[in-house]
Q: What sequence folds into this?
């Protein structure tokens, strides 16, 4: 018995990597097929980078959402928060007497404070009164969107400084990648990678992350084990709000303006889709950041592939819906299979 | 059932199990946790499929592949955790899934008639229009039984039916079972309580490690032989000898005028280092609420708590843990464990700060070593540290809960029903562990509904009634009659 304990600690981890490896194999096969259909345009490095750039925003939103969903919560306000933080940051940036990197940093901090505060307010009724987060974050969705329109007067707030251009559409290590005849990595993609790495470490390696899982699995057991469940639950909404602020910042930098309409489209639903397709359970207690990245990547590749092989844009929506359903159904069947054997 | 076999990954749950149930009899199914009782019954109920073997009812072979099949064949399951919708009334629960209708509308009159017929036939004392959530555990169990009968169950499986019942409810249940027998039903009765088997069972089948060890008429099966057959060894003494509390032992826990409305009304007592104090009382007397208030699971309205002489302020379970209080809850699955997490993660959950390194990350190597030590020390039977706690048996789950609290530096242990629903082997181990704790200077408060346990494992017994401590008994004074009299408020014998 004790020999087993020693020999098997990696089994779940192996299982985890097996799943990811399996998903990658499937994706590669599909990509190869699409590549043939698109006469080789799909697997061009430039195209892949393009996909990464496109998924950046929903992926970062999904990363924040992953924390919330693992606690068995949901944050519906993220799209509106992208809008509000973008508008607030653009307004503040125009009023600030700084320039250059100082301006960037201060503006981002303002956005993080606004997003974090919104997350804190989201969590307040959830932890104090045990209200369902669906309701409180839905109310926040409306409130923040309204505020965003009020502050901006309904029009995009154009940035006066051009210090943000590098963040929005600049590239990383451009001279080196150019010399190697590779496409340069857009700065937003670097932001996404940094967010993913920090969030993964936070979720998988810290006490906070462990408590997030424990609360999603059995909140009362976690509380009786001394976990400050109110604080941890508040933190996940704050993190989600901050991720929305980062996306608001990147969009603002990309468009050189903070528009109240940014983030109010499919962002919320596609971020949740990325989380769910990435294997995080809406019931709480399980999930991963890397899964959310792959979920976002799968959705992004799908859109891109359909565009390249000229699938009708209305039909694209149908296909996306079917793929999301399929991903969740397959995951459920796999779990049942594992439970039986 | 013939030759039933079932394997799980790494575990052979059942091998070649056969048993027969006659109409009009109670067959008791007895075995330690993990012996395969639950798996066997789940196969009968269609909740799991057998790998091998056949099931025949009235001599005809049947294939049970879903709970629906089982229901159609007249098999009714009454699980330990009830399947009741708390928001519905007793009547609505009884007809749930088979509501009589007129056209597309519910036919309430017919539903009432059907429910009342069952309730009256069996002489159940069950208010049909009360919400299930407002009813006692005993009444909820009556709902479960009535529900099974409303679907014409002829084979009724009861899994630990008396685990959560008061003595009076148990008596009523036994009367009910006798009537069911008289009506020709066959009953499979799963229990850990030796003392009730001779009262209720016609035959007893012992299961051990997934195989049938022996089946005998209950009258020819004295309890000590049952226990021997169950564990494969003789267990003469249930309870270990308690070492006397040293005369100069310091008071470890002192509770004064503790109030937590409505269930705890001015409770004062103290426990010395090396002492076990048992709280005896009926279900609903406020025993659980007292220990919850001490642990910070509920915040007390007033009163003071001293641990090791220091006044402590408890606003949350976290404060209780900081003060050195460990609270082992009565409801393992609901409050003690995160079932979807691994054995290791559950063991370290309450003391994760011990394993955080300088970079604020969890040191998984150290965590694993600590969990491994605990698993070995408590002899938790698990294929690996990564195993989800959900997949462990009740006794092993309880050991994981204990491991979680032993990892800290607690000096006061509050045990609420520490051995509920676990087998005798694991019980004995848990008693030994409690003994170890007091030898090392801990103080223990134990709540238990099993009177022999309270009497056998306590230096002092406090009888609790209506949120108050009504009487204190020393070990020698604490006879079953006297404690029951105090707990029920009848004149002392």
A:
């Amino acid at each position: 018995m004790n020999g087993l304990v020693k020999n098997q600690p990696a089994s779940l981890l192996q299982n985890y990597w097996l799943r990811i490896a399996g998903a990658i194999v499937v994706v590669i096969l599909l990509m190869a097929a699409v590549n043939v259909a698109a006469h080789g345009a799909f697997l061009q490095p430039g195209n892949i980078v393009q996909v990464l750039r496109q998924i950046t925003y929903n992926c970062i939103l999904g990363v924040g959402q992953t924390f919330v969903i693992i606690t068995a919560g949901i944050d519906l306000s993220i799209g509106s928060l992208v809008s509000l933080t973008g508008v607030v940051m653009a307004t503040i940036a125009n009023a600030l007497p700084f320039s250059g990197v100082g301006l960037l940093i201060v503006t981002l901090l303002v956005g993080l404070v606004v997003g974090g505060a919104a997350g804190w307010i989201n969590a307040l009724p959830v932890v104090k009164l045990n209200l369902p987060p669906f309701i409180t974050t839905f109310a926040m969705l409306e409130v923040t969107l309204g505020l965003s329109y009020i502050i901006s007067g309904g029009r995009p707030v154009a940035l006066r400084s051009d210090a943000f251009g590098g963040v929005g559409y600049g590239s990383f290590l451009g001279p080196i990648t150019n010399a190697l005849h590779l496409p340069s990595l857009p700065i937003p993609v670097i932001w996404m990678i940094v967010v993913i790495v920090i969030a993964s470490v936070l979720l998988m390696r810290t006490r906070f992350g462990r408590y997030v899982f424990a609360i999603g699995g059995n909140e009362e057991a976690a509380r009786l084990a001394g976990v400050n469940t109110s604080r941890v639950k508040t933190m996940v909404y704050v993190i989600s709000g901050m991720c929305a602020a980062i996306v608001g910042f990147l969009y603002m930098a990309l468009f050189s303006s903070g528009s109240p309409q940014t983030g109010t489209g499919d962002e919320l639903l596609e971020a949740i889709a990325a989380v769910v397709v990435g294997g995080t359970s809406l019931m709480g207690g399980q999930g991963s950041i890397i899964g959310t990245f792959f979920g976002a990547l799968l959705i992004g590749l799908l859109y891109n592939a359909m565009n390249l092989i000229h699938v009708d844009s209305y039909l694209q929506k149908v296909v996306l819906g079917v793929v999301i359903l399929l991903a969740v159904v397959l995951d459920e069947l796999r779990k049942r299979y594992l439970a039986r054997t | 059932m013939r030759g039933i076999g079932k394997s799980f990954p790494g575990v052979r749950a059942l091998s070649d199990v056969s048993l027969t149930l006659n109409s009009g009899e109670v067959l008791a199914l007895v075995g330690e946790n993990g012996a395969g009782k639950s798996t066997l019954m789940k196969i009968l109920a269609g909740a799991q499929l057998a790998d091998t073997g056949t099931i025949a009812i009235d001599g005809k072979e049947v294939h049970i592949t879903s709970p629906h099949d089982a229901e159609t064949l007249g098999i009714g399951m009454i699980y330990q955790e009830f399947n009741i919708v708390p928001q519905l009334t007793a009547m609505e629960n009884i007809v749930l899934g088979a509501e009589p209708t007129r056209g597309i509308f519910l036919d309430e009159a017919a539903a009432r008639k059907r429910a009342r017929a069952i309730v009256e036939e069996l002489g159940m004392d069950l208010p049909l229009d009360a919400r299930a959530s407002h009813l006692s555990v005993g009444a909820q169990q009556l709902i479960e039984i009535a529900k099974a009968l409303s679907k014409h169950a002829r084979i009724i499986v009861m899994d630990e039916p008396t685990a959560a019942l008061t003595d009076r409810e148990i008596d009523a249940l036994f009367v009910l079972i006798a009537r069911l027998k008289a009506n020709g039903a066959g009953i499979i009765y799963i229990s850990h309580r030796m003392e009730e088997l001779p009262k209720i069972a016609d035959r007893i089948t012992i299961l051990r490690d997934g195989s049938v060890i022996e089946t005998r008429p209950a009258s020819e099966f004295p309890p000590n032989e049952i226990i021997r057959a169950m564990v494969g060894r003789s267990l003469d003494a249930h309870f270990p000898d308690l070492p006397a509390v040293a005369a100069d032992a310091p008071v470890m826990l002192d509770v004064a005028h503790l109030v937590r409305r409505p269930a705890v009304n001015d409770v004062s007592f103290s426990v010395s280092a090396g002492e076990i104090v048992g709280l005896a009382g009926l279900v609903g007397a406020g025993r659980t609420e007292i220990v919850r208030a001490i642990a910070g699971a509920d915040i007390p309205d007033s009163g003071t708590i001293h641990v090791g002489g220091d006044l402590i302020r408890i606003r949350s379970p976290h404060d209780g843990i900081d003060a050195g209080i460990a609270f082992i809850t009565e409801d393992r699955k609901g409050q003690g464990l995160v079932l979807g997490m691994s054995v290791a993660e559950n063991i370290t959950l309450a003391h994760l700060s011990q394993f955080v390194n300088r970079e604020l990350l969890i040191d998984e190597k150290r965590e694993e070593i600590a969990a491994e030590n605990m698993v070995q020390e408590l002899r938790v039977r698990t294929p690996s540290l990564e195993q989800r706690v959900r997949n462990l048996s009740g006794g092993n789950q309880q050991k994981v809960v204990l491991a979680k609290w032993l990892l800290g530096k607690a000096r006061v242990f509050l045990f609420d029903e520490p051995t509920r629903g676990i087998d005798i082997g694991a019980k004995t181990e848990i008693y030994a562990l409690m003994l170890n704790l007091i030898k090392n200077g801990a103080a223990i408060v134990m709540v238990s509904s099993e009177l022999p346990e309270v009497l056998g494992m306590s230096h002092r017994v406090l009888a609790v009634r209506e949120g108050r401590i009504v009487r204190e008994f020393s070990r020698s004074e604490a006879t079953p009659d006297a404690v029951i009299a105090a707990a029920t408020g009848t004149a002392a014998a």
